[in-house]
Amino acid sequence: MQRRQFVLQAGRAAALAAAPAFVLPARAQDAPGVSAKALSIGCSAAMSGPLLGFGTDIQLGAGAAFAQANARGGVHGRTLQLQMVDDAYDPERTLANVKQIIGQGSALALLSCVGTPNNTAIVPLVEEAGIPYVAPITGASSLRKSTRNVFHVRASYTDEVQRLIQRLAGMGLKGIGVVYLDNGYGREMLEDATRALAALNMKPAVQVAVATDGKNLPQVLQAVAAARPSAVLLATAGTVSVGLVRGIKKESPGVLMAGLSVTLPSASVGQLGEDGSGLALSMIVPDPNRAKLQLVRDYQSAMRAQVKSEFSQGSLEAYVNARVLIEGLDRAGKDVTQPKLRAALAGIRNLDLGGFVVDYSGQAPYVGSRFIDLGVLGSTGRFIA
């Protein structure tokens, strides 16, 4: 049902962008993706392929935030619409999608496109076009340069990796291996992990690349078993991580595993069941199942309003990202344009979303949050620590 709603919304947004049947006020026409009654936001994400779960999380979390805002009258009287297009985690498709969104003038801004190689492909285009882009789903430090149109929300992967390795080393574990995805994201994480280990006078006990489709998984598991590490850092993402966790548990019992916030999409956490018990993961938003913070209570309320009772890190992150964009739109005013939205986002200081603070400090690179926590999964797929 949710997917059909988004497809319908996307269709309506495209129709509004293309329709010449009526004339909008000049100021509304000046801004791409803006009509008299709606604001259209673009997103290219994996809605199929190995990172399917990330696209689903964005549909759920950002969709819940948009619906929550729309129920209150929208932003300055305009409803928010999310225009999602599938790229199957293929950087070339991501680039083609974003080129089309920009070329057609169908979106005022971009929100949460997924993947390090995918964002690497589109950031130059974003900068050239001047379209505001909020919360890429990547923490790659290589993308946190002096870009004037990109507003990161999540903490960096570098910070996540350092925190995980420090925790593992602090437990007295000496032989820490690294399994990394065989693409730009994974190779950058390997560099981060190697630097973090070197700072502790350590080297990876094993380092091995796994294909994004998992075709070399047996060889990877064999290499890990042969090295006999005491712990393994999973610098991976998507469905391949499920096979890794299960395989390491079976073939290298007793080896501790730790992963980044993107290692397992929400759906994959549920798939693991008992096999996921004991897996440590970094968290770049609070625990979505513990309603101690106002942010989490607001998120859970928004999800329940969409008849969704399963909460996850991924959909909470997407909810937070959408809330940041909504704040920028509100500050940009009724006669919103892309330059006005960019300036409004850059002006965000100490924005407290209810126990989660976003601050862009007024200068590029814009990184809103450095929140990192660590959690350990139980057999139900929820964090127990």
Automatic annotation (TrEMBL):
GO biological processes: amino acid transport
InterPro entries assigned to the protein according to its UniProt record, in alphabetical order: Leu-bd, Leu_Ile_Val-bd, Peripla_BP_I, TAT_signal
Keywords tagged on the record: Amino-acid transport, Receptor, Signal, Transport
Domain Leucine-binding protein, residue spans: 40-352
Domain of life: Bacteria
Signal peptide: 1-28
Keyword Transmembrane among UniProt keywords: no
Family assignment from sequence similarity: Belongs to the leucine-binding protein family.
PANTHER family attached to this UniProt entry: BLR6548 PROTEIN
Record's protein name: Extracellular ligand-binding receptor
Lineage: Bacteria, Pseudomonadati, Pseudomonadota, Betaproteobacteria, Burkholderiales
